[in-house]
Request: fold
Amino acid sequence: TIMAVGKSAQDETWSGKAAFVLAAIGSAVGIGNLVRFPYVAGDSGGGAFVLIYLLAVFAIGLPVLMAELFIGRRGGGTPIAAIQRLAKADGASGSWTLMGWIGMFASFGIVTFYSVIAGWLLYYAYVMVGDIAGNIGANGIAGIASPAFAGEDADGITGRFGALLSSPGKMILFHGIFITISTFIVTRGVKGGIEKAATWLMPIFFFLLVALSVISLIIGDAGAALGFLFAPDFGKLAADIKDGSVLINAVGQAFFSLSLGSALMLTYGIYLGRDTSIPNAATTVAFADTGVALIAGLAVFPVVFAFGLEPAGGLGLIFGPLLLAFNQMPFGALFGLAFFIMAVFAALTSAISLFEVPAAWAKGDNTLDEATRGRRRVIGSVIIGILIFVIGVFHALSQVPTDAADTFFNSWEPFGSLPVIGERTLLDAIDGLTGNVLLPLGGFLVAVFAGYVVTQSASREELGFKSVSNYQRWRFLIRYVCPVVVGAILVYGIGIAPF
Ligand code: PFF
Reply:
């Protein structure tokens, strides 16, 4: 039996089921839920998309999530070692480790731009603090009731995002602060770093999220938001399904949001104790992540509709026009601050999870003794943090418009238009490559590996479903549904990839 291979020397573990579930939810809940979900839902027409998205989460995402977790736990060690051991135990080729390398590359690639976007959120939180301080300075404590940017005109407010993108120094500073905090947490390890961050930040996040959505539903256009999110237009749905893009967007969003295909949940599975039920934990994570996306929709869309903004605003929705809403409501600066703090917390618990994949690899194998592994975690994480920072600087610079006033940084602008990247900025190119190609490829390989390479008795034992029919349902989805649907998306993703 290969039961618990590598577990004996596994010194890093979650302190319990609750800690693991919180950390996994922390990874899943992030910019994907707060920014990406509202705009993909907005782009894809609202309710009809939400329906397909739910299907994608529970029929495709959830079985793959369970598969990643059990591969990690059964293999043990590091992400690559875990796959190697399982492949060997089941007589399969060692080249399955490619699956781990793809995931590692995807996690690393995502965190390089994720940190830059998180830096924008952090900058906005900082701006709100300055605004509140100014209001209090001018009007005493009553100033706390002021809207954000009182007295500034609409163009000035929405123009703030463009101004940020034209300020490489600001983008680099806040990206630097964010990645420094992330690096510090990751050097502290699984229990003392990642788990502690999640147990502190996630409850505050949930509190702010619920509070903001209630306020938004009260002061915004609740009817329009609820109709938009939950009343599917079946006529439109039928047309969209023929076109295929809704399905592709839904599965892509499910993968991104559940942190799948990046070897990340596989890595979190390595630290998972045998007494935790993978099906139960994975189901909790899927429900929480989906719930947060929907509640985030309820926080964003009522104000979007009340202030006549476009639902399909993309990144610009959160970083531009939403500021206008904060400008037009009482206590707007305070709400704005709460919103951006909440978003930074969510981004932080996701960024450290992405960071942990290369960090776990860097700290080395089980054959090292505990002290050596501990040292290597610190040194490895710091080196990876520096690399993320440097590549992030290029992402930030690739956002700077050519006609921005700063000529020194404009001389870097060619990085935004390298021949291989075509018309896209570096950030868009890495986002497209990871999201449309690497994550679906990782997910496809996980499904095939878990469904065909790992023996049936091994997956049944490791998953430990209480009922045989649930196991059979999982096996059917992982063998037939996931590879076919994800494979189709992959073919499409490569078609639109930035090559
Ligand atoms: N799931 C996180 C989010 O929704 O923001 C971030 C993320 C993690 C995306 C891991 C992709 C990924 F592979």
